[in-house]
Write a structure and sequence with these properties.
- This protein is an all-alpha fold and 209 residues long.
- The chain has one domain (2-196).
- It contains nine helices and no strands.
- It has helices at residues 2-39, 48-61, 65-69, 73-101, 108-111, 114-138, 143-165, 169-191, 199-208.
- α1 (2-39) runs antiparallel to α2 (48-61) and α4 runs antiparallel to α6 (114-138).
Length: 209
């Protein structure tokens, strides 16, 4: 049981950099579609890039859990709990968006209640903040931790901007582009990150308890 759980965490951990790169690439697609809307009259299909990109990146974020649970267990557990909410929320958003693409529903906004989007954004911001704080405590260089905080900060900026001026396609271009770059940078950095070597056994102990 413990070895199976440890193996699953190890798989997510190994794939974490790739998942961030894929998530960043998908958000490049989102920024591109937002640019098309902002500067042209060309019609585009529903934007599945943004929901899928966030979902994939959050799965990649779980790859940091074995690193942070051994050093900052309280923050890590809190981040893990909030991450589950964020993951489920983005999964629902992604499935709903594909239903919109297939013509099953008219729009994402019509299919899901407004409070749901508040949960999505709040849980996403809090997940990145908690994982970022925990990673900063683990990584003495702070590089990875700051890169983890970046998507949360950009998502918070989107919320503030939307509250003040409303959601625009330019938000998708600039903030979406920033999210894409931060996730691509995080994926690239994680490929060469000097990870602690004692976390695998500790993760198994935590899971067993």
């Amino acid at each position: 049981m413990v070895s199976d759980t440890t193996s699953k965490w190890g798989s997510i951990e190994r794939w974490s950099p790739t998942l961030f790169l894929v998530g960043g690439a998908l958000l490049v697609g989102h920024a591109a579609m937002s640019g098309i809307h902002a500067f042209t009259e060309v019609a585009t299909p529903p934007d599945v890039f943004v929901t899928t990109g966030h979902l994939v990146a959050l799965v990649g974020l779980l790859g940091l859990y074995p690193e942070i649970i051994t050093r900052t267990p309280r923050v890590a557990r809190a981040g893990g709990a909030v991450a589950v909410v964020a993951l489920v929320s983005w999964f629902v958003m992604t499935v709903t968006r594909f239903f919109e693409l297939a013509g099953v529903i008219s729009s994402l906004g019509d299919a899901l209640p407004e409070p749901f989007f508040i949960v999505v954004l709040a849980s996403t911001i809090l997940t990145y903040v908690l994982f970022g704080i925990a990673t900063i405590r683990v990584d003495s260089s702070w590089t990875v931790g700051l890169l983890v905080l970046a998507p949360g900060a950009l998502t918070a900026a989107l919320v503030v901007d939307s509250a003040l001026t409303g959601v625009t396609d330019l938000d998708g271009v600039f903030i979406g582009g920033g999210l894409a770059l931060s996730m691509l940078a995080l994926g690239y950095t994680l490929r060469t990150w000097d990870r602690p070597t004692d976390h695998v056994a500790a993760t198994g102990d935590v899971t067993a308890g």
